[in-house]
Amino acid sequence: MHHSEADSSLLIYMGAVVLYGGTILYRVKKNCVEKATPFSWGLLLLLASGVLCFATLRSYLGLSLFSLMCFLFCIYTSDQALLPVDHKAVLITDLWGVINNAGVLGLPGDGELLPMQSYKQCMDVNFFGPVELSKAFLPLLRKSKGRLINISSMAGGIPMPGFAAYGASKAALSMFSGVMRQELSKWGIKVSVLHPSAFKTCIQGTPKIWNKEERTLLENLMPDVKQDYGEEYILKLKMALNAMQFLSVSDLSPVLCDVLHALLAERPCGLYTPGKNAYKYLLIFCYSPLWFYDFCIRKMFSTSDMPSALRAAEKANKNL
């Protein structure tokens, strides 16, 4: 290739870079892209692709390929863009979004041991509360075509031992969110639900609350059930709350980023799974045999504690 042809190709590429790069940066500044770090890496990759196209294909074929990559990157950027602050839906409406984040955990334990009070409390706070608030504000959300966001739990998407009351209430909230997403779409309302994994919040309570719930549990047990499980087994249930504090993550930014995206993104997701292993265990539960999922969960919640009756039976079998 002659120098004049090379210079001409270089000028064309530089013009294309300025044109496409300026367009992309303008859209980013105008729409405020949610995740800056992935976008920066994508922009660097795009520039590197432009250099590669120029170095290997200095013809119009290389320019066409580079233009196609820029076009695809523009589409990706628009999907990740947040609604601008001066969007008319934000200015002219009284309410844009409702975020239901209330939750109680209670004392983790076998479903047979938990008193009905625990089930009712979890359902009242974790399910009926968000439903009542959603119904109260839906007339305003329908006018604004806004957002309804419910904070469920990893336990609301997959069965986990020890969370019969809590998981059932969160599963009800997740199903409610899914149905509302389908029904409210005709009004232009977008509904999202979050299934976070373990994060350090005040939901676990304090040792004083644990002791109170433990006394309530012991007082409401039938004598034969209490005998079969054994008081030693029951008194160790609250140890799971201590373990949760060590396994939980203090950085809440994954949850906050997903809430922000659900609230302001042009195309929010119906389901978010922030946190470690939240999406992994959901995939295992949905797409693997149940025996494999149960095996993985047993490993996750492995414990040497056994109810008194089972320990006695195991000991008797060994002595045979």
Q: What key attributes describe this structure?
A:
64% helix; elongated; mainly alpha; four-stranded parallel β-sheet; 320 residues; 4 strands
Topology overview:
Blueprint: H1 3-31, H2 36-56, H3 60-80, H4 88-91, E1 97-100, H5 116-144, E2 147-151, H6 164-184, E3 190-194, H7 207-220, H8 223-229, H9 231-235, H10 239-247, H11 253-264, E4 271-272, H12 278-287, H13 290-300, H14 308-319
Parallel strand pairs: 1-2, 2-3, 3-4
Report on the architecture of this protein:
The chain has 320 residues and is mainly alpha-helical. Helices cover 64% and strands 5% of the residues. The protein has helices at residues 3-31, 36-56, 60-80, 88-91, 116-144, 164-184, 207-220, 223-229, 231-235, 239-247, 253-264, 278-287, 290-300, 308-319, and strands at 97-100, 147-151, 190-194, 271-272. A 4-stranded parallel β-sheet has the order 1-2-3-4, sandwiched between helices. The N and C termini lie far apart (90 Å).
Quick overview of this protein structure:
The chain has 320 residues and is mainly α. 64% of the residues lie in helices and 5% in strands.
Radius of gyration: 27 Å
Tally of alpha and pi helices: 14
Please tell me the overall pLDDT.
80
Shape: elongated
Major β-sheet profile? 4 strands, parallel
Helix percentage: 55-70%
Order of strands in the sheet with the most strands? 1-2-3-4
